[in-house]
Amino acid sequence: MTVGLSSTVGLSSAGRIAITIPAYQAAPTIGDVVRRCLDILPDVLVIDDGSDDTTADEARSAGAEVVSQPTNRGKGDALELAFSKLFGRGFSAVVTVDADGQHLPEEIPVLIRAAAEGADLVLGTRDHLFADMSQVRRASNRLSSRAISLVAGKAVGDVQTGFRLYSKHLIDQVGFPEHRFEAESAVVVRAVRCGCRIVSVPVRLGFADGRTTSHYRPVIDSLRIATAVTRARFESRR
To answer: Can you give the pTM of this predicted structure?
Structure first.
């Protein structure tokens, strides 16, 4: 049953909320993720980022609205497209969920409750689960979170999480200009710089270590993140 924005779950002040799922080559998992998201909220938009498998068909059959990119343009572009469409329709916030099943849709109300208390950006964090990750993944997440927190000027325990809630106010203030994985890191820096409120809430996961399903390229994408967060730190505030 779809969860309404009512006092029964403490979400009444959060406004209209949609879910978006950026998806690439996610045919085996996307259908289940969509169905479980629809059990929480009625509006689910999948951005099929140039997949050449049946990702779009599986998502559509599960009940999601699907927009397909003709080529793979990156997670940042997929999210920017989703924000443009959903905020343009009057939604006040968008929850982002990965397509591989790592993020549990049943945890979405945890993010929404934090937004209802006045957060502009809610991060569903995994740092309490770092011990369940591989040594390489754990070290990477910790180092990147510390480095980006230092650049941003605010301690954030899990900057790399993609399980988030973005308010329209935040995106209106800082935009979402980067094209790939670096977008999620840079937006944290910009949010701190413009005085937006960031809240981290621990969440459960379907599985802690997402290396086998991630399209993250350690060298190239790490360099892009470093460049993007540095630029975000020193650019003029909007």
So the answer is: 0.83
State the pLDDT confidence band at 216, using cuts at 50, 70 and 90.
low
Assess if residue 1 is contained within a domain. no
Per-residue DSSP letters for the chain? -PPPSSTTTT-GGG-SEEEEEEESS-HHHHHHHHHHHHTT-S-EEEEEES-SSSHHHHHHHHT-EEEEESS---HHHHHHHHHHHHHHTT-SEEEE--TTS-B-GGGHHHHHHHHHTT-SEEEEE-GGGGGGS-HHHHHHHHHHHHHHHHHHTS--S-TT---EEEEHHHHHHH-----STHHHHHHHHHHHHTT--EEEEE--BS-S--TTT----HHHHHHHHHHHHHHHHHSPP-
Domain assignment of residue 173, given as a range: 12-234
- C-alpha–C-alpha distance, residues 149 and 67, integer Å: 34
Asked, for residue 35, whether it belongs to a domain, the answer is: yes
CATH number at residue 36: 3.90.550.10
Domain count, the chain: 1
Distances (CA, A) of 30 to 23, 38, 97, 143, 204: 8, 12, 11, 30, 19
Q: Which residue has the higher pLDDT, 229 or 121?
A: 121
Instruction: Indicate whether 146 belongs to any domain.
Output: yes
Mean pLDDT, residues 188-203: 94
The pLDDT of residue 138: 53
In this structure, is residue 6 part of a structural domain?
no
